[in-house]
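INFO batch 0412 | record 1 of 1 | parsing
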Amino acid sequence: MRIDLPLTSREHAARYRAQGLWKDKTLHEYFAAAAARLPDKVAIVEGARMFTYGELARLIDNVAGNLLDLGLQSGDIVALQTKNSSVMPIVHLACNRIGLLYMPLHDSWRETEVRHLLERSRARVVILPVEYRGFDHAAMIAAVRGNLPDLQHVYTLDGIGPDMREFTELLRPTRRSKAEIDQQRPDPDAPAHTMLSGGTTALSKISRFTSNDLMAMLDNFTDAIELTENDIGAALAPAGTGATGYVYPILVPLLHGATSVILERWGSNNVPEAVQLILDQKCTFGVGIPTQLTLMIPALEKHRPEEFSHFRVFSNSGAPLPYDTAQKIEKLMSCVIQSLYGATDGGTSNMTSIRDPQDKRLRTVGRVVRGCELQLWDPEGKPVAGGKDNKGGEAGEVVWRSADKCWGYLGDDEQTARAFTRDHFYKSGDLGQFDADGYLRITGRVKDMILRGGRNISPLTIEQQLIKHPAVLDVAVTSMPDPVLGERACAFVMLKEGAKLGFEEAVEYLKSQHLAIWQLPERLEIIDDFPRGPGGKVLKSKLTELVTIKLRAEGKVPG
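INFO prediction complete | emitting tokens
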């Protein structure tokens, strides 16, 4: 019996199957077919370590069998916090093999985010490092474990912590036969993967995708870049939310018999390492966010374009890539830029193809993908002129209904109802406009979020913590422009009478509240009162204008 899908009608599900978009195979079955065909081929390169498809298949079976021995039931959550690593697909595909649900946790998240996600998901298992980059993850989980009654098992990746077991135990040969494990095959319409997003809410939401949903998304991508099993993908972007940095450069190659090369961690000080990885491993494609591509330019300029003759395509996601930057990357790497547009929770509605003209590839986010109905709405929720036929017309909010949208937010029906209409359209919060050829251009955003280098920062998360400071009367966090990252967060603060607050003090206070480093504001402005609308609502656009004027006067952004 088919699972009743909460955000897809039976009529649409039948249509997606008839169109060949839903093939009713699990993610693991795609991987297993590749492993059976190419057991000795290198599947993953991770530093000096390589995994063949055959080796990876055995490890996945071992983890699946050993997880079953824990008494886990279909739909139970297994959470993983790690750097970019081969452990991600091993745990994910093991979970998918037996009907468990994999939930990634970004390695920069601390107590506030981790506790929220483990509590909201009712995770039964968590896997994490004892220590990574100077932070004690074992101590963090020990501190919150008493408040997580559903969390039964903690495994560590690099040593042992209190009341914890080593992840290597899950990698040991399982006592279960392949036939036993095969009996646990989940329905391809059951949740099979989670992606974590922020947006306008205070903390991350857990978006669930089925195997059918996710494969519809990934098939559109493989068609757009014309991927084959001969391709080698460079996984450069952070993969710890399960979205762009994971599904496209790590998961996609493994489901098609190609190879994924994983960069452990992206940082401004290791950009040359990322470029060298592409060269040394002869990568044919890469996936990144605009900040990464921008920061790579000085390192790329130290090489000759012909050194990248093997590199075909660089896929950009997370935010628009400035035209001049995209053009420069294409010239320096002798490749083409391909863009992906969508949302962590809504799926991917538009893509450019490597066959598209350069002007379309670099100035738009492409045409609407197969299986997607996209419309542009006015503020009353009605299609604007040209908003239904996807050809020319007015700008409007981008909304869509597709074969690859999520199952809704785990444990948060209220947020699901806000993001999706009753007839299953996803409201992106972005503004867009079609050209005469059906290519979509994103013109702005409706949502109150800050997009810093492809990562969503929620102002409310910062506001809720900073308002607790004894000197703060009120606070509003808004975006400020940045030539590299696109946007950064600026905190506008009204102080209590006679109080003082400096930037360093504000940042240290927020760190003490366990916010991730990338969520911290990067400028503090003291203000007597906020600009407000007739109803008293703070006009954040006016605050952005104010800080932009100051940045221009300081020569930090172009005039």
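INFO post-check: The chain has a mean pLDDT of 91.
INFO record closed
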